[in-house]
Amino acid sequence: MARSYEKHKPYFELVEALERSKGCALCAMRKRSTRRYAETLLYENVNDPQFRRRLRDARGFCKPHAKDILECGDGLSAAILYQDQVEDTLQFLARLEGMTRRALRKKARAEWIRHEPCPLCEHEEETDIMRIETLRNHLDDPELRQALEKGPGFCVPHLIPTLERLKDPEHRRYVERLHREKLSRLLDELHEFIRKHDYRHTHESYGREADSWQRAPRMLLGDF
Ligand SMILES: [Zn+2]
Ligand SMILES: [Zn+2]
To answer: Structurally, how many domains does the chain consist of?
Structure first.
């Protein structure tokens, strides 16, 4: 008999995301939580020396998360954080000065690459695991199953860690089968979209397959 877990806020948020998201619900939840965390960091942590040090060690936010930071629109906080980054970059360039081309090729890239994870990437990894664990603990719940079955399913980068965390083989078979069905349906829609592009079928109007070419990369890579 599977252990039954009480339903709390994370469960209801997960079911709601599964019901409402047009793409991977875990991507949609991650996007919202990253945005909230980015706003909090800018509001509360800009003057925290420990956070500033951590961000310097990470060589700033990664490219997609730098975009999130800029989209928060908090220019002053962003300027304070990027002041550190630009200072560090000037020091980096000073270290390259006078190097031979050979030494430059050996050292420059190796030194420039990120040696610590971006704080927002780290936050995403941690919170993804919490959401996957909520799913795992409630996977026998009919309401959750119904929402999962009706929706488009998880993207592959979220499906793999989900499968990895499902201890019950029945749960794993259920999620695998469900996603094989969903991806087979997507493949059929891509076939149909391509078929309707043939000049002999151009008079036929588009149905569900109309945006299949936009959904396919998002299911394989995660939402973007
Ligand atoms: Zn996803
Ligand atoms: Zn990042």
So the answer is: 1
